Amino acid sequence: xxxxxxxxxxxxxxxxxxxxxxxxxxxxxxxxxxxxxxxxxxxxxxxxxxxxxxxxxxxxxxxxxxxxxxxxxxxxxxxxxxxxxxxxxxxxxxxxxxxxxxxxxxxxxxxxxxxxxxxxxxxxxxxxxxxxxxxxxxxxxxxxxxxxxxxxxxxxxxxxxxxxxxxxxxxxxxxxx
Length: 177
Description:
Elements: H1 3-14, H2 16-26, H3 32-46, H4 58-79, H5 83-97, H6 104-117, H7 120-131, H8 136-143, H9 147-170
Helix pairs in contact: 2-3, 2-4, 2-6, 3-4, 6-9, 8-9
């Protein structure tokens, strides 16, 4: 790697959580966030000579991430039509939040704090579904629950996390309660 490539890689790595936050916002599919971040890195590095690395890279990375996330989300929804409803719901939420300024790092920090406060069983469901990319039928078998019960539980956990993050952001920082 030459010094320009090394510098570009360092810039990307310093904004990795930012990229993942945007990826998750535009393509909320289990396991997809890391794929998107990796693709953004590859495309960012492939064109590193075109970027003015002396300027803030966040707007560029945000745009790249959004485009890649939407492209990958479209591919997933074509492959699995039941995801289309999730997409519609997510787009509606994005439209409602459009006026809010981006606060990805703060939201990710608040999310981490909120996750720590969840009961063990809820954290297990989140880990299996979002981090291990396991579907609800498989989770149901692992935790001895019905698949629709797992879906409802994940929905309640998401709502709790959303409320916790919202409260934390209104307090201007990480979750405390």
